[in-house]
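Title: Request for sanity check on LysR family transcriptional regulator prediction

Description:
We are preparing a figure and want to confirm that the structure record we downloaded matches what your pipeline produces today. Could someone re-run it with the sequence below and paste the raw structure tokens into this thread? We only need the token string, no images.
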Amino acid sequence: MRDELDIKSLRFFSALYRLGNVSPAADALSISQPTGSILLKRLRDHFDDPLFIRVGQRMEPTPRADFIAQTVFTILDLADNALMKIPDFSPQTSTRNFTLSMTDISQMTLLPHLQTQLHELGAEGIAFSVLNIDESMPGDLESGKCDLAIGYLRQVPDSIYQQRLFNQSYVCLCAANHPRIREAFTLTDWHRERHLAIRINGTGHGDIDNLLEEIGQSRRVALTLPSFLGAGELVADSNLIAVVPEQPARHLMKHYPCRIWPLPFSLPGIAIRQLWHQRHHRDPGHVWLRGLIAAIAERHLA
């Protein structure tokens, strides 16, 4: 079986075809004459033809070399120009559909701003499909099922790029008319009250009990939800309390009669990030989207 030719061999063919001598062709490619001779032998073996015959002081192409020359020139032109050219991306004319993976709270807080920005930019041909974030997210990014993930995420593979959008602190959310938590939220309140826990598979929001254990604290969980949906109404209409990041807590306060309190102890803050696979790192449309989301987060969510 013949070996496949590499670009280096094709470049040498092109230089020899133009210059008619091994030494000038090798010099044009900044390689040694022996290396040029090796490449010529590789070409001859591959095409089973001498390709170039010495006539006087020149190496003249054979009919086979003349026949393949234009194809070689086209391949090199593609490699040097068309294949290397970065395609343009115009949000105003694009009809691209991006798939985003995010928590429900990001769907409620980020997506409205994103739609507003698209309208203001005249980029309403761009569409989005949204997946609920879960433990399959890294695989979805790798396979291309998902373009971008947004959330509090930990232990992602090395093939995934990350960008911090904003930091969040945990707070306690309770009903505005809670019968016992009126003037302050104390450590006694923490241990006495029943808790609503929110554990979202595939995100760091399921790690809060580990964080509490590390500082020697525990909580009495009465109800566990798989998302933030329903948390505002449940807290507002009961005596349950919930530990949630400050940004979603403030969002819930706008829609339900709740209030937030600082925790009676310190917990590490969390970083909300956007994540993408390395295959999309230089894609112009993807770069534009990441920049737009980072700007929205800085302006509205931080």
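Thanks, this matches our download. The longest helix spans residues 63-82.
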